[in-house]
Every structure is written in C-alpha cells, then in structure tokens.
Amino acid sequence: MHIKLNDVTFTYSKRRRNKPLAGPFVLQHLGLSVESGEMLAIAGKSGSGKSTFLQLLKGFLAPSEGTVELDATDPHLSRRPQVFDRVGFIFQYPEHQLFSTTVFEDIAFGLQSAKLTAEEKEVKVRAAMEAVQLDYEQFKDRSPFELSGGEKRRVAIAGVVVLEPEVLILDEPTAGLDLQSRTSLFDLLHSMNRQRGMTVMWVSHQLEEILEHASRLIALKEGQFLADGHPTDLLSDPLLLEAFGWEEPPALAVTRLLRKLGSVPSNEILSPQEAADTITKLLSSRQISV
Amino acid sequence: MIDIRNATFYYNEPDEEDEDAGHKPALSHVSLNIPFGEFVAFLGRNGSGKSSLSRLLNGIELPTEGTVLVEGHNTSERSSLPAIRRAVQIVFQNPENQQVGITVGEDIAFGLSNIGWPQEEIASRIAWAIQLVGLEADEERPVSNLSGGEKQKLALASVLALAPRCLILDEATSMLDPVARRQFVETLHEVRKQVPFTLIYITHHLEEVTGADRWVLFRSGEIIAEGTPAKLEQDTVLLENCGLELPYYHRLAGLLRQQGISVPADMNEQKLRDLLCT
Amino acid sequence: MSGKSFLLYQKRNSWLERWDPRMKILAVLLFGAALLLTHSPELKTAQLLILIALWGVAKLSWRVLVFTLLSLSLFFASTMIYQALLVTSAGDVMITWGPLHFSRPGAIKGIMMCEQIAGIVLLLSLLVRTTSPILLAEGLEILLKPLKKWRLPVHEAVMMFSIALRFLPILMEEFDKIRKAQLARGGGFHRKGITSRFSGVLPMLMPLFVMSILRAKDLAVAMESRCYQGDEGRTPIRIYRFRLSDYAVFTFSLANLLFIFVW
C-alpha cells in the first residue's frame, strides 16, 4: 500500500468559518510518501506530534488541512473509511488491551465482523500465531493473563496481524521488553516485512535499534519533519544530532573512523566483532611495515 | 545498611494442599549485603526477581522465608516498618502512578506530612527538594503540566525530601526518551554528590550503570553473579543470558583486549582515534 | 490530551480558589439547603444566577458551563414533562394536546425542579473545580472529625475520594486509548456504532478494569512507600486559618438560608 501525505496540518482547535485555522498546531505542513515494504522508523521527543501523526495514518484523526492518501484515494474525502482497515495499528503496551479468557478468542476478536466459518477462523488465527511465533496448540487455550510480558505482547500483535493489514504501525513496540524479547520481536517484524511485503512503521527512542532495523528514518520535532532519509546518513549528521540532543551511535562513529583509515567497504556498519577484527588487522599490518 | 539473609519470596503463598511444581518463587534463597553509600545495580531479564527484591527492602512485601534487615530493623516486624520506610525510598517506572498531589508542592509535601513534619518546615523542604533536582517549576505548578522527564524528576524530589538512607530506582528511566533519560541520570549523580545515600539501580540498560560499584545479576529468582562492572563485563555470555548487552565501546574494548591490544577502560571515539593514529 | 482539562481542578488563581476548603464545603451545604428549601421561583432563579456569576468569578470556562447544563438537558426535559402533566385542578390547564393536559403551576414547578438540579450540579462543580483534591480531602476530613469518635473510617474514605478525583482524567484518557485500540483490532470504527460492532462491552470494560486495578495497586504501593499509614501522626499540608473572605462567604450562605425562611 502506498501512503501519501500532502501538506498535512493538524490542530485540535475547531475550524471557524471563513477564518484561518487556529493553533496551537500539533503538526504542520507534513509531506510524505511511503512505498509498500518499507521499514520506517519515526523518532522524536515526547510531545513532538508523533502520536498524532500515527493516528492520522489510521484515520483516528482527520487532517485539519491537507490530505492523507492511501493507494491514491483519500478515505475521508471519498467517504471510504474502510480503506483504513488495511492499516494495522498497535498502541504502546498493547498487552493492556487483552481481555478474553483464551489466547484464541483474543486473537479472533477482530474477525467476528467478517462472518467466517469456524474453520476459516481457525486457519487465520493459526496463521497469525505462526507469524508471531507462538505455537498454536500450546497457546490457544491458555489465558493471556498468565503469559510472560513478551508473550502477551505477541498475542496482542497477533490480534492485529490476523486482520492481514498491509501496513503495520507500532508505537514503541519494544518498550519495557528485555534484550531477548526485543530481538525476537524485530525478527518477527522483519519476517512479516519480507514474506508479506508488509510496510512496518514504528516509533522508537533507541537510536541503535533504528540503525539496526530501519531502512528509513523520519525525525519529527515540534510537529514538523526535520529529516527524512536513511538512518546511516541522518544519525551521523552533526546538525541533526544536535537539534535532537542525540549522540551519534558508536557503531556509526567507529565505522566512519575506520573507513577513513581505508579499510571498510562502504554501505556497511560494523558490529563490535567486525570493528575489533578490522582494528587488529590494521594494527598488526602497521607493526609489520615498521 | 541492608542485609538480606536467605530470603525466599512467593507472590502467592504456596498452597499446602496442592503443592504442584508449577508454583515458582519470585525469589529463592537470596542473600545480599549492601553497605551504606554503595551504588549497586540490580540486573536481569523481565521477571528475574530484581524488582521483587527491591519491594522486600522497604517492607512493601515480606519474605516468605528468611529475613531482610534494614539498618538493623527486621522488615517482618510491624513496629519497625515506619523507620524502614523512611530509610528506603523507591522511584517507580511510571511517574503518573506515583504522584499523589495535584501541584508540585503538594506532591513533595505528601511524604513529609505522613511522617508528621511541622508545616513550616515542610514549606522550606519543598523549596529545597525542587532546587536539589533542578526542577524548573515553582511549587504551585500543576503536575499534569510537566513533561515525562520533569515528572520523573519530581518523583525523585518527592522521595529525596524524606532524606532516605537508601534510594531504589525501579526502571525509573524506562519511560523517558534518551535526552530526558540522560538528564535524569545526570541529575541523580549530581544530587548524590550533595547528599550521600545508598543507590540501588534497577535497569535493562547497562550504559546507565557502568559507574556502579557493584552489579548484581538475577536469573529466575536467584542471584547468579555479583561483582564489579570491570569483572562482570568480561563474561559476555553470562550477561547475554541475563538479557543484557554491553554498550558498543565496552564490547569493542573487551574484544580488543582479548587480542592482546591494550585499550583504555573508558573507551570512546577520541580514544580509539588516538589508539589508531599513533 | 483534549479531555484533560475537563472535570477537574485546574489552577486559575481565582478568588474562589483562595477560600478555605472547610468554609467552601460548609457554604456549599448551606447554599444547597437554601436552594432546595425555597419555594419561591424568583428566589430560586436569583440563586441560580448567583452561582452562574460565581462561575465567572472563578474564571471557569463558559463552554464547560454550557456543556454541563446541556448534558443534563434530557433530565430537564423529562422533569418538565412529568411536572407539567401533573394537573392538580381542571382550572389550571394551560395547553391541551391530545389526551395530555399541561398546567401552568405544573410548568412552574417543573422549571423550579430543573433550577434545583442545575443549581446543585453547579454548586458541586464549583466546589470541585476550584479546590485542589488534597485540600478538599483535608477540609472534609477536618469537618468530619467528630465522626471518628464512633470509629468511622473518615480519613480512609476521604483519601479514597480524593484519589478517585485525581485519577478521573487519567482514566478518561486511558478509556479513549482502549476504545481506539479495540476499534483498530475490530477492523474499523466507521461501521455503525461501537456497541453493534462489539458483542457487549467486555472488550472495553475489561481492559479499563484491569488498568484501573493495576494503576491503583501501583499508586497504593507508591503511597505506602512514602510512609503513608493513614492519619496516624500526619500533619495536614496546609495551615488552615479562616480569613475575612471566608467569614464573609459563610455569613452570606447562612444569611441566604435564613432569608429563605423569613421570605
């Protein structure tokens, strides 16, 4: 699905007739085009308008000015809000929204309007659980409340994935998870991105996470896009880093340093292991030449 | 000041009639001694017992077996709870769930009025606490107007007003963005220079506790390792098992040391440059 | 974000905020009694107008006032109809509409009932919107102190009340989030109403319930950690000293009540 924002401005204050739009503006003149299959990270402080921006994409809010287009149609203007159904939205701490007595029922909740037979339902829930790497037989009858934090979150994600969205939007999906759960969550997002061509857009505070997983980064500040591009470029841009008070991720700094010394292929970010190997090689070759 | 002796803790008392193997303790046979003034980090995966232990330390939860002593007071004795609560204060993860007051001043006053401070002294203490954490807000400011970072600083001010001997931060930075997080941690260490206290820091982020005196690693309700960061940093497998990842430069430095290359302890970009360009 | 300013005390530095909470509570009781006891439509209207004027003095938003009254409109309408239909004698009939007879005294009675309801609601909103919950709680506690002699848990009840007030906006925000999240899961919010989309209210109430419990538990732990142990040895946050304005408010409310009887 192709997502396009044309000069979108948003304010919570109501529009008065024949008067210019009144502030305060949460979002101002946003333009954006997202192709299907992108892994797009969104960064910005709390209060920068991130959450409002995401809600526009799901149609929870309508732009005060400008348009949001999904596959070249404006769902608000053309009165086809069902287009927003193709966007999946996962709030922060989605496990708080679980309510059913079994994992199966919770995941199947979104399917009840679709008039499916029991078998069709089962096939879909099974596929969704597979997508989030939860064993169907093992988990389907368990109560979601007795699962671990990481498992609960996967159940909640499955509840959205079961609707087969073409775009998946997640608000800080790794908040509160430990290293292992974070890693497996991103494995999952990558595999859905690859296998189904699903666009994944997520809000993140962790620059390392963005660098490792995003193919594109949008940096939002005070309701405006300050930057839009490849994370490698943006996160080593001193001006941008300063504007956000960020520190350059060490992996980028080290890679840049070693590349300057002429020993790293371009378009590659070094892991600590690779960096250590490169440095060792560099130092030993020097010793030989001396 | 804190002495935990062979403490075992179940969130629900084990049922005598059906003692199935499925019921696991949140902590089993934990012993730990923390002297006054130490900066200790409790580390481990979600549900490894680190938060449960922190709750035993001020008597919110009581050990099912074993004893927890805080400055000689046993937490299981009801009469000593007021003294223990005054000595041990906690800042929690979600600032919204720990604020009682509507304004900054009211919130800081809450603890002080609970322990019966005279009103005039409460007023001056509020001003002191606000200044201590560098909160740019007067005491009349409504809590709802504060940003996430400011709310957490207020939580810090509110507990520091009680002059605790020991402060526990239970994932206190996890809901903050990186800039607010850095400011919070800086503030904390500034404050520690002015008023000494034992600091117990619970986190998933090792970069916040590289300056700790001691790391305590939890796994499935047990302490599986403890020692100085310098010592534990070398065991990356152990750290990974506990859901922890060393900061990039620490990992790089460790790997280089294995290759016999001497690197400075606190490596950064500049130091790496010096190493490579000399 | 938008729901936050609603329903709760916000600092506006108005004159009403500086009144002593104990006096305010007493004044609300006295004024409320007067409003209920008077049988004169003129007096009821006058009292309602005073309350509306106070709303302005308290620097509260007029939109909130209108909204508050509108939210009661259905209630007003049913009261009016009910009262108007109670015909006491045949001579009172004002309008006949099919089998229904509307009477003039009935209509006046209806208006007075509506004024009463509106007045009480305004009184309470004025109290809650101009008094910080902690002050309100402490004020209530001081006033209810005599009840402690009979071992009634005054302090605990008051504390619960004040915390419930504080958590209201947070819960409203939470509810909005849950609603959106479940809508996102249910496939879309554009199809006919929420209730027809969801079988029952369980998907909304269950998470809200769980969240409230979790939050309440967190808050209880945080309060306990900060040495909270009921009212034992607790100092009130403010020093309560009546000022001239407080006496004036009290005198006015009392005079108002007495005036009703004399009238």
TrEMBL record, chain A:
Domain named ABC transporter: residues: 3-247
Keyword entries, A-Z: ATP-binding, Cell membrane, Membrane, Nucleotide-binding, Translocase, Transport
UniProt cross-references to PANTHER family, sorted A to Z: ENERGY-COUPLING FACTOR TRANSPORTER ATP-BINDING PROTEIN ECFA2, HEAVY METAL TRANSPORTER
Main location: membrane
CDD domains, alphabetized: ABC_cobalt_CbiO_domain1 (cd03225)
GO MF terms, alphabetically ordered: ATP binding; ATP hydrolysis activity; ATPase-coupled transmembrane transporter activity; cobalt ion transmembrane transporter activity
Organism per entry: Paenibacillus agri
Identification of the protein by name: Energy-coupling factor transporter ATPase
Family annotation (Pfam families): ABC_tran (PF00005)
Membrane topology: Peripheral membrane protein
GO cellular component: ATP-binding cassette (ABC) transporter complex
Localization annotation: Cell membrane
Protein family according to the UniProt entry: Belongs to the ABC transporter superfamily.
Automatic annotation (TrEMBL), chain B:
Organism of origin: Paenibacillus agri
Membrane-topology annotation of the record: Peripheral membrane protein
Family (UniProt): Belongs to the ABC transporter superfamily.
Name of a matching Pfam family: ABC_tran
SUPFAM superfamilies cross-referenced by the UniProt entry: P-loop containing nucleoside triphosphate hydrolases
Record GO terms (molecular function): ATP binding; ATP hydrolysis activity; ATPase-coupled transmembrane transporter activity; cobalt ion transmembrane transporter activity
Domain of life: Bacteria
Protein name: ATP-binding cassette domain-containing protein
Keywords, ordered alphabetically: ATP-binding, Cell membrane, Membrane, Nucleotide-binding, Translocase, Transport
Residue span, ABC transporter domain: 2-245
Classification via PROSITE patterns: ABC_TRANSPORTER_1 (PS00211), ABC_TRANSPORTER_2 (PS50893)
Subcellular location: Cell membrane
One cellular component (GO) term of this entry: ATP-binding cassette (ABC) transporter complex
Automatic annotation (TrEMBL), chain C:
Entry membrane topology: Multi-pass membrane protein
Gene Ontology CC terms: plasma membrane
Keyword Membrane: yes
Subcellular location, record wording: Membrane
A Pfam family reported for this protein in Swiss-Prot or TrEMBL: CbiQ
Keyword ATP-binding: no
Name of the protein in its database record: Energy-coupling factor transporter transmembrane protein EcfT
PANTHER family, alphabetized: PROTEIN ABCI12, CHLOROPLASTIC (PTHR33514)
Transmembrane segments: 61-85, 117-137, 244-262
Keywords, alphabetical: Membrane, Transmembrane, Transmembrane helix
